[in-house]
Amino acid sequence: MVVGMRTFKKNNIIIIVFCFILFLICANYVGLSINDFLDLPKIKKLMRVPNLSIIPDLIEPTFQTLAIAYVGTVLGIISSIILGILASKNMTINKVFYGISRIIIMIARVIPDVIWAFLLIPAVGLGAAQGIFAIAIHSTGMIGRFFAESIEEIDSKPLEALNTCGASYIQKLIYGVLPQIIPSFVNYILYALDHNIRVVIMLGMFGVGGLGFQFIIKFRVFKYEDVFGILVVIFLILFSVERLSTYIRGKVMDN
Amino acid sequence: MAENHTNINSDFSISVKNLKKSFKNNEVLKGINFNVKKGEVLGILGLSGAGKTTLLRCLIGLETPDSGELIINGKKINYNNKKINNEIGMVFQHFNLVPRTNVLTNVLMGRLPHINKNLLNKLGTYIGYFPKKDIEIAIKNIKKVGLENKVYDKISKLSGGQQQRVGIARALSTEATVLLADEPVASLDPKTSEEILKLFIDISKNDNISSIINLHQLDYAKKYCDRIIGLSNGQIVFNGSPKDIDEKTIKLIYGGRDEDF
After folding, report:
1. How far is Cα B19 from Cα B3, in angstroms, rounded to an integer?
2. One-character DSSP codes across A167-206
3. Lower CB density within 10 Å: C or N end of chain A?
4. Does residue A165 belong to the interface with chain B, where contact is any CB pair within 8 Å?
């Protein structure tokens, strides 16, 4: 006699059912109804043929957005490398540096970049510096943590060999740690750049300037053709950045 | 490194006296005594866990012994500072090469004890600069291990045997008078194992380097070592010529277990 065997565990079914019930409760709590789903196609009311003639006017804001993202990311990477090394169990200098760098990374990470942009207003006012520091600080939290984790995951055996050769701390970092972490570092750096370009576009609506600022002023005066023109530019930027990232990743992996 | 320059037993390149090492409550080395003559090849045999690796790690300074004396070339080594002993070079079971770099860069690491004596040269390594003289010595050693065609090859492109050749070239580049090898051929196939072991011992003999080799295979030890020490449970149970190894000593070293050889 063939007896059926239950392959799903009872607990797993309970968890899935629980998640679904929680979803219904939350949706109900915020007032999401079936009608909202039915209304979704109305998005096309906004659809316009993109006005591409505004593209020449967007060149400067585009460079502004890219420059802010690049400068902020570079600053963030520099501090991430330093803090990442100090916050890794195997390469930190001592417990005090370890603890302090962990705390800095945590604070920088848990506060979202948009909120950093607001917190920075008393210090640097509205504008490019506000955006640069906001993404630099948040990247430090995000990338610094990733850096620390990838340093902790390296193979310690080459470092042991360098020890027997009398390598100094910095020589161990350059010749023992760096070659091992380059692929993941490059990966995180490209991810940070891509993420930060999106964030700077968004921050443009909160005083930082650049493409996001153009977007919000055109939107407020209902110039939807221009809004879609801006979206075309944003799409092209992010698409090129993604292609470039893929290309660089491929090059690094080959080596 | 604080060294006592009174010459003691200068016939020996290494003298180990009553060396002890425990990890927590586990006494791994229970008072080890032995000497290595200049240019001698000493093989250490023993089961896994007998303390072979710990012994070599204590000698080079990767572990700090609890007590005991180490005299290298007549100089007493102070264990209390955690510095690595630059008169000793080491070859590892897993080669311990830095991945994603080339053969030359790995071998140049063996030059660091000499490069770091000069602050400018030391700072130079931080930006990837190595003195010409050190590059020449590194390439000379790469030739010695037969990899002259692979100087700029990436480590990942090399076979296991070739990687261990790089490991040997790196250890040679330290110009240490004593070389330690911790199971240098344990992760290689039998044919390559013998090739690499022979290369290591030929070079040691040629350059009058004293060497201590942890080995798994009794037949290699018998064939290539001048003298053999049998380690069991952190104690030396045999110390003599390969000729003197008989059934009884094998039982002593391997505790009657014969599946290891």
Report:
1. 18
2. --HHHHIIIIIHHHHHHHHHHHHHHHHHHHHHHHHHHGGG
3. N
4. yes
Query: Using one digit for the tens of pLDDT, what is the confidence trace for A161-209?
Result: 999 998 999 999 999 999 999 999 999 999 999 999 999 999 999 889 8
DSSP 8-state secondary structure symbol assigned to residue B154 = B
Element (H, E) at A160: helix A157-164
pLDDT at residue A45, as a whole number:
85
- The pair of structure tokens assigned to A182 is 């380059």
Contact B20, B68 (CB under 8 A): yes
Q: Of B60, B73, B62, whose CA–CA distance to B171 is shortest?
A: B60
Q: How far is A86 from chain B (nearest CA, A)?
A: 19
Q: Where are the beta strands (DSSP E) in B175-251?
A: 178-182, 210-215, 227-232, 235-240
> Residue B260 pLDDT more than 50?
no
Q: Are B67 and B121 in contact (CB under 8 A)?
A: no
> Which residues share a beta bridge with B236?
B231
> A116 or B75: whose pLDDT is higher?
A116
Asked if B109 and B98 touch (Cβ cutoff 8 Å), the reply is yes
pTM: 0.84
Is residue B181 within 8 A of residue B213, CB to CB? The reply is yes
- CATH class given for the domain over A52-254: mainly alpha
Lowest mean pLDDT among A2-6, A49-53, B148-152: A2-6
Distance CA A141, CA A199 (A): 15
Residue spans of alpha helices (H) in B15-131 = 52-60, 103-108, 112-115, 119-126
pLDDT recorded at residue A46: 85
Tell me how many degrees the CA angle A109-A114-A117 measures, rounded to the nearest 5: 100
Provide the 3-class DSSP secondary structure of residue A191.
Answer: helix
Q: Do residues B175 and B114 lie in contact, with contact meaning Cβ atoms separated by under 8 Å? A: yes
A160 touches chain B (CB under 8 A): yes
Which residues does residue B186 pair with via DSSP β-bridges, in sequence order?
Answer: none
Of A237-246, B3-12, B160-169, minimum mean pLDDT range = B3-12
**Does the CB of B73 have a partner CB in chain A at under 8 Å?**
no
**Nearest by CB to A174, which of B90, B116, B126?**
B126
B-chain residues within 8 Å CB-CB of A162? 98, 109, 112
Q: Which pLDDT score is estimated for B258? A: 45
Question: Who's near B156: CB < 8 A, 6+ residues apart?
Answer: B99, B100
Tell me the C-alpha distance between B18 and B40, whole Å. Answer: 21
- The token duo for B11 is 């016939």
- CA A186 to chain centroid, in Å, comes to 14
Is A164 strand, coil or helix?
helix
